[in-house]
Amino acid sequence: MEIINEARLFSAQSKNPAWLAALTQGSVSQDDVKQRISTYAKIFSRYQDYKSSLKMFSGLADTPMLANQYFNATMASWVRSFAGFLSIERDMDQETALLNYLDLLGVTDNRRVLPNWGPENLRNINARFVTTAPLIVGQTSYTVATGKKLLPGSVEIKLVHVTNPNNFVTVRDDRKGNLIAPAGILAAGLVDYSAAGRIEFTLGDGFVPETNDTFNIIAYEDVAGNPEFNQIANGNNRFKLEQKYIPLTAEPDLLIGESNLMSIATMNKSMGVNPQDVLGAKLTELYTKLVNQKLVNALQINYEGNVHEFDITTWQSTWYDYNSQLNAFIAELVNVDTELARKSVKGVQATAYVVGSEASNWFMKCKGVGAFTPVTDSTYVNDLLGYLNGVPVLRHLDIAPTEGYAVHKTRDGYLAPLMRGIYLPLTNTPAVGSYQNPELRDIAA
């Protein structure tokens, strides 16, 4: 028997309109669709190489019916599972792989300016330094550390009386580290232009602070100047990329289906079906369900979001009109989007909801106000229920009945709550005899 070429089969199947429609339905954008197709193509290509090399050392050969069945099951599970909604999918060229990503860091202090995920740090990037602080009654000396290497001649201080804010006193530096002011205003004034960017001044008899008086400072960083001796060049406007890695380890699952010769003969005679074919189909169905379960469990274990509670009892006691309660539920999801944006920084709104049984009821009830569109071809309780204002709603019974998760996957398909590394597609083995029982025949996926 020949070895079936899954890479060629995938190339043809990936152009199938029905399969593409299902893949698009489970993706966040066309860019995500292209990313997933590219990943799947690499997986099948590697699988083909794996089978070819294995045949050199064994009598491996595909049973056409089973091989096609497992290929179809793999293709179906990739578009019918939760993977496209909850995870980024990447191919693994070995059992342990590294997924790399890039963070943007500041050159001078290695601060994370634009991390791949998490809060950004935009402080002190602008060359302009601006601050306003109160002048204290009875205090004459003040020190401000800008944290910038200052450009000589750029420092300007305004001393403001609250009773006459338009008649402020302006103090400037002389490019040599001294502060220049009208006679009697300052007793002393210095500027340290180095990396600390320290500004010091002492008020003289010509300006006596009163309650609520203030001083304003404007200065500019020397972002293009030469570094000081034995120091790196200064400037918070200088950035570099840092490559980091997330380790991925393949966890091969083996699903073994057993049948015996007596059962095969009996079912063939009585029902006209081969139980091994049925068993193979059931194994592939089990595979898809296990993928969903693993994704949901990973989401629950690694969850680090904020809890946002819906006070449904208040709605029910406030509005007797049922539509008003549903509209309140939909409006509350806007607050969920805000919390999601705050926590993730990247996401501005949920791209999917994964909910328990009771929470899913509220989503489905929103059909009454025209906000929910159900999916009619769902065949399993843990599946895609439909769309609330275009956002997919997934139900899974492993989630507590009254709980749910709002997740965000970026439109480019590069960032999601979960990551799924795929080493090999669903793989079948030929039926083999059991050494413990000559009547048994085992197949595995």
Description:
With 445 residues, the protein is an alpha+beta fold. It is 32% helix and 25% strand. The protein has 10 helices and 21 strands. The chain has helices at residues 6-13, 17-25, 30-55, 64-80, 83-86, 261-271, 275-301, 312-318, 322-344, 357-365; strands at residues 87-91, 96-106, 112-114, 128-134, 141-145, 156-160, 169-173, 179-180, 186-191, 198-203, 214-220, 239-249, 256-260, 352-355, 372-374, 384-388, 391-395, 404-407, 418-422, 432-433, 440-444. It has a 5-stranded antiparallel sheet with strand order 4-11-6-7-8, with no helix packed on it. A 5-stranded mixed sheet has the order 15-16-17-14-18, with helices on one face. Helix 2 (17-25) runs parallel beside helix 4 (64-80). The longest helix is centred in the middle third of the chain and has 27 residues, at 275-301. It is elongated, with a radius of gyration of 33 Å.
